Amino acid sequence: MEYYLSRLCEIKEYIARFRKMVIETYFPDSGNRIVDRPTESKYCWAFRYTDYWKVLSGIADICDMLGIEYLWENKGILKHHLVLLRTPDYADYRPNFTISIDVIARIFNDSEGEITDKLKLLDEEEMSRLNEAVNCYIETCNYATITMAVSSIEYRLFTLLKTAKADPRLDRLTLGELIREYLDHKADYKNIIPRKHEPLLDLCNQYRVFSIHPKKEKITRPITTSIINMAFAFLLDEELKKKTQATTEKKD
Question: What SS3 state is found at 115?
């Protein structure tokens, strides 16, 4: 499994390692063309190269889900240069590789502040579950994507309710029961969840049931995309994070 969000946390170093590996392996002695050996032909399709490229491509695919505006605005440029880096007639010329990897690095560097601000809204467990959800999404495993995306929502919801009201009964509730508990007793939980997310909770619970039980409902790609987008919207909501912190401080 590839941990796309974790890679995004260290994206500057990751791109630098990719650049170093390619130049040292395929362009020795400052040459502009790849070493002329059969094993080096079409090097941009090699496993080692592909492993790096796939991570960058995956991150480009999901950058709009993360709500990182600069990445989203430059998604087309990112995708264009990533395609070029998988084109042998282009990538086997060192200046071309350097131009494209520099463009990609610059876009991520200019997004560094936004990336940091977004990902710091996730705790370690949420990051782990979302990493699995993103990995499943990129591999087009729709049912597994929804299961893990909703799992991350369930974890945040449980944490929020426990933060607002330390009730041991919450430990035994399913996601659907947690949702109903909150909606029926919002005042008891300090209205900790913004109203805009209430329909999301019900919808995610419904599709979680569809994804893990043998129902007749088919989970399509558009539905999967919608659910994982909503999971990110919920977990990366700064207002929600602030309310959680405020509630915790009052309890302390």
Answer: helix
- Asked if residue 142 lies in contact with residue 220, where contact means CB atoms within 8 angstroms, the answer is yes
Q: Is 209 exposed, middle or buried (0-12, 13-18, 19+ CB in 10 A)?
A: middle
CA distances from 214 to 136, 172, 217, 239 (A): 19, 24, 8, 37
Tens digits of pLDDT across the chain (252 residues): 889 999 999 999 999 999 999 998 888 766 666 655 444 457 888 888 999 999 999 999 998 899 899 999 999 999 999 999 999 889 888 899 999 999 999 999 999 999 999 999 998 999 999 999 999 999 999 989 988 998 898 888 898 888 888 888 888 888 778 888 888 888 888 888 888 888 887 787 777 766 666 556 788 899 899 889 989 999 998 887 776 666 555 555
Q: Which residues contact 206 (CB under 8 A, 6 or more apart)?
A: none
- C-alpha to C-alpha distance for 202 and 205, rounded to whole angstroms: 5
Cα–Cα–Cα angle for 232, 234, 238, rounded to 5 degrees: 100
**67: left (phi > 0), else alpha (psi -120 to 50), else beta?**
left
